Amino acid sequence: MSTGAPSLKVRVQSRTVEAQDIVSFELVSADGKPLPAFSAGSHIDVPAAPGITRQYSLCNEPGEPDRYQIAVLREPSSRGGSAGMHERLKVGDVIEISAPRNHFPLAHEAAKSLLLAGGIGVTPILCMAERLSAVGAEFEMHYCTRSKERMAFADRIGRSRFADRVRFHFDDGPADQKLDIPALLAAPQAGTHLYVCGPKGFMDAVLNTARERGWPASQLHCEYFSAEVTHSASDQTFEVQIASTGQIIIVPSDKTVVQALTEAGVEVQTSCEQGVCGTCLTRVLEGMPDHKDMYLTPEEQAVNDQFTPCCSRAKSARLILDL
Hints:
Layout: E1 8-19, E2 22-29, E3 43-49, E4 52-57, E5 68-73, H1 81-88, E6 94-97, E7 112-118, H2 122-134, E8 139-145, H3 154-159, E9 166-170, H4 181-184, E10 192-198, H5 200-212, E11 220-224, E12 238-242, E13 248-251, H6 257-263, E14 282-286, E15 289-290, H7 298-303, E16 306-307, E17 313-314, E18 318-321
Parallel strand pairs: 7-8, 7-10, 8-9, 10-11, 12-18
Antiparallel strand pairs: 1-2, 1-6, 2-5, 3-4, 12-13, 14-16, 14-18, 15-17
């Protein structure tokens, strides 16, 4: 399976322990040329270990032409990505990465931005805060972690020009400082856009509360870092047809669409293989997908004109794919 061709050579300029189990990496151009510009919410594809590519959000201030900064949480249940970054990537190493891509952009029409970060989800949220502060936009930021020891970039935030707009919340702290999600999202405000990133449980709590309180879907923005690919007894064998050739491929109940396509010689670019990054997003011309991803919004899923073949399946007997 292909993860797409990396296009930029960068050197690891520095490596810093930011908090318990979190390390940041500063990446600079290997040939000294300016790096491509990026916008708040952007991420890059990084070779985390041999054969493993992961997406990491850029967390330095947008507009810096000479560096990218990412931060990586070492996951106890790592499939090789975060462990590889922590154990293998060293200062001076030269690696190939993708150019920045943004699936989590700021809404320029927002009158106010409400930024909610959980744990390592602070990386894109911090970048957003930097940008909003630089342009004088109205925002507030809430940063939740299990403990102070796990809070990355706390000193940087404390020294920033927007420090007074940030509230810290600790799971192991007093009850009165914990984030009260229902109170914070009690009533949607016209022009206020909500951005959330972090562990799935945290994000689900925020988004479900916002929807229950009547926040419009157009004002809710999120980015998942990981997800569990779900399997159920209802997963059935189905067919996919390649629109360009007419080739029909059977997808057994115990294989993903990407796996079946690969075995048939049809290549689809993948990266996370968990339905969170959007790399494999494919147009559906006919048929009914069974969406299992965390990338598409519920509204986008309801249209049923695209799906993520790394994890999603079919409710109909056949899907015709724009491949």
